[in-house]
Amino acid sequence: MSLLKLQSAKVAERTAHERGTPRVLRLGRGSLRWRPRTIAVAFILLLGLASLATLSLAQGAYSVPPDQVLAAFFGSGSDVVRYAVVELRLPRTLTGIVVGFALGISGALTQTVTRNPIASPDVLGVTAGASLGAVSVIALGTPFAASPLSVPAAALLGGLLTAAVIFALSWRRGADSLRLILTGIAVNAAVVAMVSWMLVVAQLSRAVSANVWLVGSLEGSNWTSVTPAVIATAILALLTLTVARALPALALGPDTAAALGVSPRQTRTILLLLSVALAAIGVAAAGPIGFIAFAAPQIALRVFKTPSPPLFCSGLLGALLITGSDLLLRVASPVPLPVGIMTTLIGAPFLIYLIIRTTRRRSA
To answer: Would you say 296 and 100 are in contact if contact means Cβ atoms under 8 Å apart?
Structure first.
């Protein structure tokens, strides 16, 4: 057993070296592997995200210079500036960052565990389930609709229940990747049909409100809705990074992973559950913003040149995409538009490109 572990460790180290020279930081009895390229590009992404967030806080009907935006956080400046920046724009910007981060990590987990670059919470039906929960509150006018947390809570519950149904239907001594995707596609189609039925039978004003939410929007974000999303995303992200330490062992194959003390079936199931929870949190906070969970991990994979989508960096790219898309729409569009329109315009061509490229590789 010890010989097998040693050989597996050597194979993993050789593979990592070929894909980019890693550095090892010793922390007592443990160690942390990192690559200079990953750290440098992640730092650039953080700077870009901070710049976009500052511009987002400055833009609006009442424009604020960037230096006054920073001053508003320290209590200086006029009351109008502090109210516009801290009370109105900061919740919206923070919602975009948190939702993009959650969806980016969720998509990276799904694509890594299923080993399918096209897999995402959208494909698995989690997003549609969350939409069903929210639309049942908005369009049908349930008694809980008056509460400000009713729509996010219904979306979160709908996403989790739909994921439970998908897992139950696809479970055969574990969550097989192919069976999970096929079941998710079928359940997704059924849930979308139920959402369409609700929109048809609902009153016109309620159906319009539900349609706006279904596109994915940051409009109406406030501290009441963003605070639970921040807390939940932070907890789930920490849990994900803890469990994800087993991903390199899983990449060596189920037999080798088992020899290294990792349970492949149990680890995949836990990671998929965390992916579902992160996606449900993101949809509950801002609606089903399309293609972020799919595009962010694939862009991160190409930017960082890693064997699989990096989790934290996929989250950063998701936050960058949503924040940038929302800022672009606010600057370029004369009327308010949901951010989901821009992310769909970005993600749909990228999906077509990825499908064509994958097809050509398999044909070759």
So the answer is: yes
